[in-house]
Write a structure and sequence with these properties.
mainly alpha, Globin-like, 0% strand, globular
Length: 209
């Protein structure tokens, strides 16, 4: 994601990369498309856009505001958000236990700044999936922003396969944690948001190649 562009650029970097192009793509790269969804109220759009611009999780008041509109119970989502950093750490541990070579010399997530960029992106991906679940809108991505993200990842040589593995682990951990308190329908919303995101990442990277 844009805030990780510099970190992804550390270490192995494609030859002849244009810093101006990277800055341009980073400015355009965007995941969330709900800020202009006509099916959401203006207040819901503004709430999501503000949180996304500030790159943060939703506040309890924002979760209740969105829940009043979507019918999604805000309390389980608040509990999930409280675990966000822990869940990302667990996803990292699982991935590296299964594939330690990813962070070794020559691995997709080597050197360390590239691995850190991956975990940071996973946090932000979880964040926007929580937005989607709170709004009851699992089809939530921005097509133009995702296209720019694909171009950015391609330009920086981001190891998308490794990133997607981490994201898949995060999906499993997050939905399992959410299911302890949320209804099955609400868990499905979160799972669908993760699936939508992973499919869009795959699609935008293939298109950009």
């Amino acid at each position: 994601m844009p805030n990780s562009a510099n970190s992804w650029g550390n270490g192995i970097r494609p030859m002849g990369i244009d810093p101006a192009l990277i800055r341009e793509l980073a400015a355009k790269a965007k995941v969330l498309g709900l800020a202009h969804d006509p099916e959401l109220s203006a207040l819901a759009q503004q709430t999501l856009e503000r949180a996304d611009q500030q790159e943060r999780l939703l506040t309890p008041d924002e979760l209740h505001r969105l829940g009043n509109e979507s019918g999604v119970d805000p309390e389980p989502l608040q509990q999930l958000q409280n675990q966000a950093e822990t869940l990302v750490d667990q996803a990292r541990t699982q991935l590296l236990a299964a594939q330690p070579q990813l962070i070794e010399p020559g691995g997709a997530l080597y050197p360390e700044p590239r691995a850190e960029a991956c975990w940071r992106d996973c946090f932000h991906f979880l964040r926007v999936c929580c937005y989607a679940a709170a709004a009851g809108k699992p089809q939530f991505t921005d097509p133009h922003g995702m296209a720019a993200l694909g171009e950015l990842y391609a330009a920086l040589g981001v190891p998308v396969d490794g990133l997607l593995l981490a994201l898949h682990n995060l999906q499993q951990l997050s939905t399992r944690a959410y299911a302890k308190q949320a209804s099955s329908d609400e868990v499905m919303l979160l799972e669908q948001a993760f699936v939508e995101l992973q499919n869009e990442i795959k699609g935008c990277v293939i298109t950009s190649c």
